[in-house]
Amino acid sequence: MKKTFFYLGCAAVLVAAQTGNGHAAPSVTATENLAKLVATRSCRGCELSGINFNRMDLSKVDLEGADLSTCSFLLTNLSYANLKNTILHGAVFGGADLGDADLTGADLRGVSFDSAYLGGTKMSGEIVTTKPFESIGVDEVEKDVYVEDPAIPKKTPQQQEVKVGERRDFNDVPPVAVTKKAATPAPVTEIKSVEVSAPPETAVPQAPPAKKSSFIEQASVPETISDAVKERGDDAAVENEVETVTETTVPEEPVPPAVVETKVVPGKTVPRVAEVVIAPEITDEPAIPPVEIDKNKLADLEVLLDTKRCFGCDLSGLDISGKNLEDADLEKANLSGANLERTDLEGVNLKGALLVGANLKKANLKNADLYKANLTGADLTGANQKNVSFDNALLDGSVGVEMSLMLKED
Predict the structure, then answer these.
(1) What dotted CATH number matches 294-410?
(2) Distance CA 28, CA 259 (A)
(3) How many Å apart are CA 141 and CA 133, to the nearest integer?
(4) Model pTM score
(5) Domains 18-150 and 294-410 in one fold
(6) Is the pLDDT of residue 181 over 50?
(7) Where are the domains of the chain?
């Protein structure tokens, strides 16, 4: 009996895998339309419900108005696809690329966008993160779902009325056809130029007044010492006789006067030493004020450290070195010029992120997703890059990218 249940369970799993997400197998019409789509890259208004599109390249296809309900789009490339007014309820887009796709007016009820790339995607509503199992005490599981914009009224299809005229006798003269006059074009409104006043000039602090230059007094040896030396006839002392020191004028620069000290030891013929103390250089240029960090960036950083989520936020130029951001969601975030040295970025979602000139030295990027990220000029020296996804990423001028470690797990 146990073997019977085991075989029945295996059969159920195989049937679910073949039909795609456990739904019914696609119809014959849907299969024929799939062949048409692959051949022509277009299938407007086609019946394609239940089709398995996993890992297919459907970039720039035209599927406007098509029925794509309960379809599977796991890891499918749908970038720049025309999906206007399509029926997509119950579809799964796990890991799909929907960059710059047009989903305006599409029926997205019950659609799963988990791990999908939505950079530049057009849609009528918005994507929100929900916790589907919060009611039973499980808060860790999150799911990205589509929420319609309540401000946009739903369109009701309009049916054209057909009026049938009265039956007439063919012997009668046919009625004269009435032609409608062409509508008079609306007058063109003249656009007046608007003068925009220039913004007020920023006040520049005035430089301090330049100090006047001064002369340094001469330091001379008293005549009494020379006379005493001559009387004794000491040749050595005569050679060491102090010479008169004459200072020239200081160049015309804002430099304060020097301090001169003269020391004389009684009874000894020691040359006088002029000790000059030079004051620090004074410039007319105002001091550069310290750069203030944007308060909004600091607030976003706090949210990131608390929740591990910061979709599309601006963290450019911040110091995030050594932080633990494992499994964080930083899709489309701006991290240009940020310091991420030794930061733990394992499993982080960096799809479409800006990392221009970022410092990623010795960072842990294991299993990180950098799909379509901009790493121009970034420094990855010594970073752990095992199983990193660099698909369609910009790596111009980047340093330390180890292509041999970019291995993908099946």
Answers:
(1) 2.160.20.80
(2) 102
(3) 7
(4) 0.46
(5) yes
(6) yes
(7) 18-150, 294-410
Strand-pair partners of 97: 77, 117
3-state secondary structure of 224: helix
H or E element at residue 35: helix 28-40
Residue 262, token pair as written in the block: 């003269």
Any residues with CB less than 8 A from the CB of 83 and at least 6 apart, and which? 63, 64, 66, 68, 101, 102, 103, 106
Question: What average pLDDT score do residues 217-228 get?
Answer: 52
Provide the phi-psi class of 352: left if phi over 0, else alpha when psi is between -120 and 50, else beta.
left
Given a contact cutoff of 8 angstroms between Cβ atoms, the answer to whether 96 and 76 are in contact is: yes
Percent of the chain with pLDDT over 70: 56
3-state secondary structure of 183: coil
Lowest-confidence region among 69-83, 88-102, 165-179: 165-179
Overall average pLDDT of the 239-251 stretch: 47
Long-range contacts for 293-300 (Cβ within 8 Å, ≥24 apart)?
A: 293/317, 293/318
Overall CATH class of domain 18-150: mainly beta
Give, for 122, the enclosing helix (H) or strand (E): strand 122-123
Rounded to 5°, the CA angle 409-321-382 comes to 50
